[in-house]
Amino acid sequence: MARRNPWLRIGFDAWALGLDASFTIGLRALKMMAGGPAAEAEARRMISEKIEAGQALQTKALTGGLGMTAPGAAAKTLKHYRRKVRANGRRLAK
Hints:
Layout: H1 6-34, H2 36-62, H3 70-93
Helix pairs in contact: 1-2, 1-3
């Protein structure tokens, strides 16, 4: 029985994250171009979220939460970031 290559799925997941990120970046850019207090708050939120997401991923890595294999760690990393990006896209689309 042939084994599936986990990197194919990881590649697709990375592509999907890129699409989600492009959508979210576009929505954020529109909000920031409008200016004002809402734009300033969004810029601050964006920076703090990026720092928080990176720290949470680092904690997962240091505590073994990403798994023991390279494909497992890559898949869990993508899942971690995609969840954050999608939540921002939903929030900004309202």
